[in-house]
Specification:
7 helices; globular; two-stranded antiparallel ribbon; mainly alpha
């Protein structure tokens, strides 16, 4: 499901119980993150639940970034699934240009999530953006001048 279809589906659902069920189902559909990826280096600081985010960068120019992630909390796994839909497979510049706050608002999540979950989502976004900035800086440093 692409982002627009996700927004349409969220808006179609009548109540938040149904939306939470969709969020949980999205989390359940995430591929299992291997144990070796559940390292402290991949752990996202700022989340109440445990969240691990692994990044792979392609050899293309500009490179594309691919993310796999997991959490030990069902709703957070759903938020992880949204994050992956928004960012995985994009270039660092596309990631930095993505207005995730608008997406969050379009899905109606801003008003419905607890402050801790919202803060955790912001921490995940910050981690992705920091990694994108690092890849972009490496790419720029390696570019012939």
């Amino acid at each position: 499901m692409d982002l627009q279809r996700l927004i349409d589906t969220f808006n179609f659902l009548d109540n938040w119980e149904d939306r939470y069920r969709l969020l949980i189902d999205m989390g359940r559909e995430l591929p299992e993150l291997p144990d070796e990826a559940r390292t402290e280096a991949n752990r996202v600081d700022g989340c109440t639940s445990n969240v691990w985010l692994e990044t792979t960068v392609s050899d293309e120019h500009p490179p594309r970034m691919f993310f796999t992630a997991d959490s030990d909390a069902f709703i957070v796994k759903g938020l992880v699934a949204i994050l992956l839909k928004a960012y995985s497979g994009k270039t660092p510049q596309e990631i930095l240009n993505t207005d995730i706050e608008s997406l969050f608002d379009d899905l109606g999540l801003s008003q419905q999530l607890t402050a801790n979950r919202r803060d955790g989502f912001v921490a995940m976004v910050k981690q992705v953006r920091n990694r994108a900035q690092a890849v972009q800086a490496d790419e720029t440093a390696g570019a012939p001048g």
